[in-house]
Design goal:
Blueprint (H helix, E strand, L loop, with lengths): L13 H13 L20 H15 L11 H5 L1 H9 L2 E3 L4 E2 L7 E3 L2 H8 L7 E6 L4 E2 L6 E10 L5 E10 L18 H5 L7 H6 L1 H18 L1 H18 L14 H16 L15 E2 L2 E2 L6 E2 L21 H18 L3 E7 L2 E8 L12 E3 L4 H14 L32 H5 L19 H11 L11 H14 L3 H10 L8 E2 L6 E4 H12 L3 E2 L2 E2 L3 H7 L2 E2 H4 L10 E2 L4 E2 L23 E4 L6 E5 L4 E7 L6 H16 L1
Parallel strand pairs: 2-7
Antiparallel strand pairs: 1-3, 4-5, 4-6, 6-7, 8-9, 10-17, 11-12, 11-23, 13-15, 14-15, 16-17, 18-19, 20-21, 21-22, 22-23
Length: 647
């Protein structure tokens, strides 16, 4: 029996379905979800019949959704299973590393799941093969990286497309590695009674353990998608070293296999999605010119330089904000440190001048100072919104035009029942009404096929239009930025935002929650907002575009959502809602808001603080690793102290 088939011939009998169901769902390679299982042990006697009936019923139910136009209950019951399948619906038979002269057969990873969700047997996938330079080929050539683009579908809405990375190695390559020796025995097992076995027993049989771990590691390398990605990156690094001259450094720099692989797929996708490729009906990719995509222009010169924040520490008696402010802030911050026992760095600017910049506390093995880089978590959304403003200003993206103009697969992102819903747009994504969920779902921005996954999630009802706080939607906008510029998102941040503002040490992961900055650099971004899009002699965007970043009412823009009348959000920004300490907050009083009722901000899991007071021209930026106890109380006290100063 060929268990790797497409599933269209599995309806002959329930016993075959039971076997396939158990094999498929119990041996799934999904690393982030527990598989659905029938009981592991068979009951005895008459109970056995009931057990078989239950499992047969499960297998039969998986054979097809009886109501293909309706939402399948499995989507709500097992979202982890569905998400893992959406991310990796196809797999190569035999593994991701191969030595043969033919490409491996690409098959569905869960054909019965496809049949249930689509209501029909899973069709055979169609596969196109490409070498590492993106040239389409029919047969594998020399050892190295190969890319597969896999497509399968029933109709215009129910179709899937993904990319896979495989690696061909020489048949002469050893599968066992170097010889095993007792010198490489894991020391932790030699010192601890692992699994209830005495250390001396482990030591006496070290060779068996080493042989097992080597074989298990190699098997995982063959069968896990990251194995081909890792080996491919190492092979390409080796090629560079082999081609180096004697005078050149013959040590590879730091290798990021996932980033290298993503570049391969991004470049291939851009070539396929051009008008001459698969999605020709959608017109040219936005911003594309003859010969390639158009880079985002650098900031324009600003003839009337805007305020900038110069790093320094305010000392008592220094003119500007007044000698008393520095002492009051320092006293509050010392109390906060003693109470919460969490280090932080604070940077505060008033009227375009940095009036306070100090670090507090310590961290084992890591100094805390002005240059400490902190995780912003959800404040990352504010930073990403600012970069998005540059794309809006340059006309490279548009707030309310469908993102399908840039990412054509999103044209299939309907409401999950074949009905045309509101198109995904930059505004809907950044205001959390895209219908997407979680942060970095389906691999996030690290998945160059994310838009294809999003379209499929809507097609089966895993995602539906509506409100939902989501960093994945920010990943999708980041993918659009990369598509129209041909540049990786971290590079876009560095070249077009961080460098013009003089920011150092920044790290960019996912745009919804993975950006790390110094406190002073977060304050500079706040000053950029106060300056209306200018910083020093750089104009990053116009005041009109700055206003597009500001919060808007959900009831005004999306009345169909029926959200609270007080609900509002912008492009990664919202109005801060802290009340002055000691003032009743029921009903909410705009007069009680501090420092003013036009203070922008965003929360963060790390406890980092970002506030931009448009009325009082004030920026408050605090980098933290953890919030600590009574975080909200200390933030309100800080804002009240600053409000009293400016008033």
């Amino acid at each position: 029996m060929n268990l790797a088939g497409s599933g269209r011939h599995l309806s002959s009998n329930h016993h075959t379905r039971l076997l396939i169901l158990n094999l498929e769902l119990q041996t799934t390679v999904f690393t982030r979800s527990a598989p659905i299982r029938c009981p592991a042990s068979r009951p005895a006697g008459g109970i056995r019949t009931a057990w078989v009936a239950v499992c047969l019923g499960a297998a039969a139910s998986l054979s097809g959704n009886p109501h293909p136009g309706a939402a399948d209950p499995l989507i709500e019951e097992r979202p982890d299973l569905i998400d893992a399948w959406l991310q990796s619906p196809f797999e190569p038979a035999g593994g991701y590393l191969f030595a043969g002269e033919q490409f491996p057969v690409i098959r569905w990873s869960q054909p019965l799941l496809v049949e249930r969700l689509w209501g029909q047997p899973a069709p055979d996938p169609e596969v196109r093969w490409f070498d590492s330079d993106g040239r389409e080929i029919q047969q594998p050539g020399p050892p190295g990286r190969y890319l597969a683009v896999v497509e399968a579908g029933l109709d215009e809405r129910r179709q899937m497309r993904r990319g896979l990375t495989l690696f061909r190695f020489s048949p002469a390559a050893s599968a066992s590695g170097s010889g095993s020796t007792g010198d490489r025995f894991p020391m932790e097992l030699a010192q601890e009674p692992a699994f209830g076995l005495r250390p001396e027993l482990w030591q006496s049989q070290a060779g068996l353990l080493i042989d097992f771990t080597e074989r298990a590691a190699f098997d995982r390398l063959l069968r896990h998608p990251e194995g081909a990605i890792l080996v491919g990156a190492l092979a390409e690094a080796q090629q560079l070293l082999d081609g180096a001259t004697v005078a050149e450094e013959r040590q590879p720099g730091e290798i990021d296999p996932a980033a290298i692989d993503r570049d391969h797929h991004r470049n291939l996708r851009r070539r396929l999605d051009r008008p001459s490729g698969r999605d020709k009906d959608f017109g040219p990719v936005a911003g594309e010119r003859a010969g390639g995509v158009e880079p985002l222009g650098r900031p324009k010169p600003e003839p009337d330089p805007a305020p900038i924040l110069t790093e320094h520490v305010l000392v008592g008696g220094e003119p500007g904000a007044g000698a008393g402010l520095a002492g009051a802030l320092d006293a509050l911050f010392r109390e906060w440190l003693e109470h919460a026992e969490q280090p932080f760095t604070a940077a505060i600017a008033i009227d375009g001048r940095l009036v306070f910049h100090r670090a507090y506390g310590e961290r084992p093995g890591e100094p805390i100072d002005h240059d400490t880089v902190y995780p912003l978590f959800s404040i990352s959304k504010s930073v990403s919104g600012i970069l998005t403003g540059m794309f809006l200003d340059a006309g490279r993206l548009h707030l309310d035009r469908p993102l399908a103009e840039v990412l054509p697969a999103l044209a299939r992102a309907d409401d999950g029942q074949g009905n045309e819903g509101p198109p995904l747009t930059v505004r809907r994504c950044l205001m959390h009404v895209s219908g997407l969920h979680g942060h970095s779902a389906w691999g996030g921005l690290g998945n160059p096929w994310l838009d294809e996954v999003v379209a499929d999630a809507f097609a089966i009802g895993r995602s539906r239009p509506g409100y939902g706080y989501s960093g994945t939607a920010y990943d999708l906008v980041g993918l659009a930025m990369e598509q129209v510029t041909g540049t990786a998102l971290p590079t876009l941040f560095e070249q077009h935002l961080f460098e013009p503002l003089g920011m150092r040490g920044a790290r960019v992961g996912d745009p919804g929650a993975g950006i790390h900055l110094r406190a002073i650099d977060l304050a500079r971004l706040g000053q950029l907002i106060l300056n209306g899009g200018a910083y020093g002699d750089h104009r990053l965007f116009t005041p009109a575009t700055r206003d597009e970043l500001l919060p808007r009412s959900y009831t005004e823009l999306f009345p169909e959502l029926e959200l609270s009348a007080r609900a509002d959000y912008g492009l990664g920004l919202r109005w801060a809602d802290e009340a002055h300490p000691g003032v009743a907050d029921d009903p909410p009083s705009a007069i009680a808001r501090v420092p003013s009722d036009r203070t922008l901000g965003h929360g963060a899991l790390s406890g980092s603080v970002f506030r931009v007071d448009l009325t009082n021209q004030m920026v408050i930026a605090i980098g933290r690793f953890e919030a600590g106890p009574d975080h909200g109380m200390f933030v309100r006290r800080l804002l009240a102290l600053l409000a009293d100063q400016v008033h």
